Amino acid sequence: MSNAPLPEYLARCHCGAVTARYHTAVPVSGWSLRACQCSFCRAHDAQSASDPAGVLEFLASRPERLQRYRFGMRMTEFLLCRECGVYVGARLAGEPFGIINARALVPIPIDLPVPQPMNYGAESAVERRDRRARRWTPLAPSSL
Ligand SMILES: [Zn+2]
What we know:
Metal Binding Protein, Guanine Nucleotide Exchange Factor, Chain A
């Protein structure tokens, strides 16, 4: 491991109230990009990215605009902006793992891979939690 800081990618909502700082050593062209086929992610055309060796931090310059939306098993907080409606990323409720929505990256990297359609509908809550603990990005202690 080098001690050099990991490259940083910034995701933000349209009005700028909710942001995510994603640190990963993986070059963009090598990202494992997923297009979850659940009705929420489809509606946002979301593309999820994560790196178990990276670091992710969610921030809100205007905390009153942060919406933590939960549905289904209710184990995930989908972080949206109440003001402008953008979906920035998600985190496990109560556990320090998250993903960014690559659609919210600023700027959008030009060499994003084609996302792989994913269907997690058959997972149990335990399987879902275990997969995310393996694949999602650890959250910085300061993260929302
Ligand atoms: Zn916003």
